[in-house]
Design goal:
The chain is α+β, with helices and mostly antiparallel strands. The chain contains 13 helices and 24 strands. The protein is elongated.
Length: about 525
């Protein structure tokens, strides 16, 4: 047996007519006239499909393209088809409207209907339509009309308490019932002239007015596995940074990621000072380094996640800060929230209070620093804000410390249906106290489903080796996972029982930019469990 789904052609009409007579024998054996089929093929050839079995057409799907706002949710079959003239078709319509689907009774065990629907969905995505609409008969409703309203009948079909050959099939193909239509198809006694207005939503649809300059769903990330080495001065250090920016720019990367405390080689000049004093001296370099990163982001056309550096704020407190320097010249700041015991003991650092996903020309991103990734609440809050890529600059001295970061980062990718890129330092700094040894294997992690690598690792660096890791991630796969994944973690959360929320309002961030949106009020996380 040979089965083929293909565009419908005028030459298929004989088989089409024969199949329709068999399909609709119970309601008079009516069929489409050849002139109707020819007209549909002329005005919308992409929307007409058939399935051929051993050279014979045995199934068909017909559709038009409409501006749905011209009709709304209250319409009949005659109205949507222009009384079968198809004058309602519009070449710039925003929805595909299905006006016919049928399968020859002798071939219904082959699930040919699903093939037709898959073909429709593919065209809908290619044409960037909002979705597919159709008025669906409910032929078994006549058996239950005396005891159930249409709404009750539909609910029982959804719960699989009742089987309806049309509605059950539509629901299994990711359609949902948008409305119940009255008098949709006069003479349809099996459905009591009711129909379900069914909708399949194209999750890849992009409104023209919402399109951004960067519309490609493939995002290229350049992760720097930074070798700790001594530098003569700040200029030499920045030359090394620019070398890496230039390298990832040559590969046309959208993001470059640096590790946590990548500027600690500059502490060598302060090694004779107590550690709390030395780290504050290092903080003097933070602003000029951040300014240079912003300059490089513009000149090399790459968004830079500037690792992390120490920052002494106006209040005199010491923070661990990561910067996002966009290639349009704007920048954002994230202050590490969870400070390690080591950072508290040796440096007297304190944690920040803002949790915020950031807009970029490549989608929404989040930043957390090293220890932060071991706290799942942060990733979940960022995911709720729309984060698609999570960047994690880290610095670990031992393999077990690295393992904590790695495994937690992979968990964040799976549970939040996002990509996670981790960037670490390698090598030794014998002249810098408390930063003397480093262990890292930088990587880019993915969710775990069929669309992604089987081990959920997109790419990883060689352990403890200075290198640049280049990896492409596809944001469209995240949408597909969210809507059609084997498991749908974000959708299946029991928010009736538990949720992750913020506990208290934090003070506004320092007024470091002219745009007030760069300093929103944010809060620390807490898990709230319902009674």
């Amino acid at each position: 047996m040979h089965i083929q789904t293909r565009p419908l052609q005028k030459e298929d009409y004989h088989d089409l007519k024969e199949a329709m007579i068999e399909v609709y024998s119970g309601i008079g054996g009516d069929y489409w006239q050849k002139s109707n089929i020819v007209k549909l093929l002329n005005i919308f050839p992409e929307g007409q499909f058939c399935v051929e079995v051993d050279g014979k057409v045995v199934a068909c799907a017909l559709a038009i393209r409409v501006k749905y706002s011209d009709f709304g949710d209250n319409h009949t079959y005659a109205q949507i088809t222009g009384n079968y003239t198809f004058k309602t078709h519009s070449d710039d319509g925003d929805y595909m409207y299905g006006i016919e689907v049928f399968v020859h009774p002798e071939y219904r065990d082959l699930r040919l209907g699903r093939r037709l629907y898959d073909a429709r969905k593919e065209v809908c995505e290619q044409l960037n339509l909002k979705g597919i609409l159709a008025g669906g008969r409910i032929p078994n409703y006549s058996k239950y009309a005396d005891e159930l309203t249409p709404r009750e009948y539909i609910a029982k079909v959804k719960q699989k308490e009742i089987y309806d050959p049309t509605l059950t099939f539509q629901l299994s193909n990711d359609f949902h019932v948008r409305k119940v239509l009255r008098g949709y198809l006069p003479g349809d006694t099996e459905s009591k002239e009711y129909a379900t207005l069914l909708e399949w939503i194209n999750i890849y649809y992009v409104d023209e007015k919402d399109k951004k300059p960067h519309t490609d769903s493939i995002i290229r990330i350049g992760v720097i596995q930074w070798q700790m080495r001594l530098f003569k001065n700040l200029t030499a250090f920045l030359e090394q940074v620019e070398f890496y920016v230039n390298a990832v720019s040559d590969y046309r990367a959208d993001f470059m990621v640096l590790p946590e405390f990548f500027n600690t080689p500059l502490m060598a000049d302060f090694n004779d000072l107590p550690e709390p004093v030395a780290i504050r001296k290092l903080a003097d370099y933070t602003e000029p380094v951040r300014e240079k990163l912003c300059e490089l982001a513009i000149s090399y056309n790459v968004n830079i996640v500037g690792g992390s550096m120490p920052l002494v704020d106006e209040d005199g407190k010491l923070y661990n800060v990561a910067y996002l320097c966009r290639r349009d010249g704007s920048w954002e700041e994230y202050r590490k929230i969870h400070i390690t015991p080591n950072e508290v003991k040796h440096y007297g650092m304190v944690g920040g209070n803002e949790i915020r996903a950031f807009d970029t020309d490549c989608g929404k991103v989040g930043m957390v620093i090293c220890y932060d990734v071991e706290f799942p609440e942060l990733g979940r809050i960022l995911a709720q804000q729309g984060m698609q890529i999570l960047f994690v600059p880290f610095l670990t001295d031992t393999q077990n410390g690295y393992s904590r970061v790695r495994h937690c980062a992979q968990a964040r990718a799976i549970e939040n249906e996002c990509y996670v890129a981790i960037s670490g330092c390698v090598g030794n700094l014998p002249r810098v106290q408390n930063m003397d040894i480093n262990y890292a294997q930088s990587a880019v992690f993915t969710p775990s489903d069929f669309q992604f690598p089987t081990n959920a690792v997109k790419a990883e660096a060689t352990t403890n080796t200075e290198m640049v890791l280049i990896a492409d991630v596809d944001l469209s796969l995240l949408k597909e996972l969210h809507e059609q994944g084997s498991v749908q973690v974000l959708k299946d959360r029991r928010t009736d029982l538990y949720d992750v929320k913020v506990k208290k309002m934090a003070r506004k961030a320092a007024e470091r930019k002219a745009d007030p949106e760069n300093s929103p009020e944010q809060v620390a996380p807490v898990i709230v469990v319902a009674q």
